């Protein structure tokens, strides 16, 4: 069974799916999975690296609305972020989202020390996945979930990230056979 979305959100999602390749969006199947993960773990503080036009952020924020959570989302390109912000407003989730525009590495390096995340979604510069992970590590809660898209579609570019997760005794992970491949890592 697919998630039931309100009519406005469903219409926006359907329109955004038409531009999936142009905006590098995740698949609907991946969005549904991310939405379920947030609800299953009752996530409260999520971060998304790679906002694009807001498609994945809508899946994340719709679940976070139900858990009473918050989404911080980072996008390098101002043009994409402005589209995302409009989509968030139209779908009624802008009140629980903090959009930040700029270099993800610089933004992550400047997070306040006491900032903690229990859910992470990575879908930005593939070669930087390892850097995002290393910078975010001190900001992860004990039982956090890290998810990352494009693990099979861009396998060579993300291999060092996958190796780091694989060699980290604190994480149990699996790569799900979803379009582009989704890594899901749980911190034990």
Summarize this structure as a short list of keywords or feature phrases.
seven-stranded mixed beta sheet, globular, 188 residues, alpha/beta, Rossmann fold
So, the CATH homologous superfamily?
Vaccinia Virus protein VP39
**In which order are the strands of the major sheet placed?**
3-2-1-4-5-7-6
Per the CATH scheme, the topology name is Rossmann fold
**Low-pLDDT regions:** none
Topology diagram in text:
Layout: H1 7-17, H2 20-23, H3 28-41, E1 45-49, H4 55-67, E2 70-75, H5 78-90, E3 97-101, H6 104-109, E4 117-122, H7 129-136, E5 140-148, H8 155-166, E6 171-176, E7 182-187
Parallel strand pairs: 1-2, 1-4, 2-3, 4-5
Antiparallel strand pairs: 5-7, 6-7
Helix pairs in contact: 3-4, 7-8
Describe the structure.
Helix content is 43%, strand content 23%. The protein is an alpha/beta fold and 188 residues long. Strands 3-2-1-4-5-7-6 form a seven-stranded mixed beta sheet, with helices on both faces. The protein has a single domain, classed as 3-Layer(aba) Sandwich (Rossmann fold), CATH 3.40.50.150. Helix 3 (28-41) runs parallel beside helix 4 (55-67) and helix 7 (129-136) runs parallel beside helix 8.
Provide a short characterization of the protein structure.
The chain is α/β, with parallel strands linked by helices. The chain has helices at residues 7-17, 20-23, 28-41, 55-67, 78-90, 104-109, 129-136, 155-166, and strands at 45-49, 70-75, 97-101, 117-122, 140-148, 171-176, 182-187.
């Amino acid at each position: 069974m697919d998630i039931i979305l309100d009519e406005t959100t469903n219409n926006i999602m359907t329109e955004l799916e038409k531009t999936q390749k142009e905006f590098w969006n995740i698949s609907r199947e991946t969005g549904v999975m991310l939405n379920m993960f947030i609800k299953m773990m009752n996530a409260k503080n999520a971060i998304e690296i790679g906002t694009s036009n807001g498609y994945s952020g809508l899946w994340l924020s719709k679940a976070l609305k139900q858990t009473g959570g918050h989404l911080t989302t980072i996008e390098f390109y101002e043009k994409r972020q402005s589209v995302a912000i409009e989509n968030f407003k139209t779908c009624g989730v802008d009140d629980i989202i903090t959009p930040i525009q700029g270099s993800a590495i610089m933004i992550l390096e400047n997070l306040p020390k006491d900032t903690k995340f229990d859910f992470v979604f990575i879908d930005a510069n593939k070669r930087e996945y390892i850097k995002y992970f290393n910078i975010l590590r001190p900001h992860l809660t004990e039982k956090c979930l890290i998810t990352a898209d494009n693990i099979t579609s861009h396998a060579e570019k993300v291999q060092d990230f996958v190796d780091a997760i694989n060699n980290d005794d604190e994480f149990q992970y699996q790569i799900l056979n979803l379009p582009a491949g989704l890594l899901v890592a749980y911190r034990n």
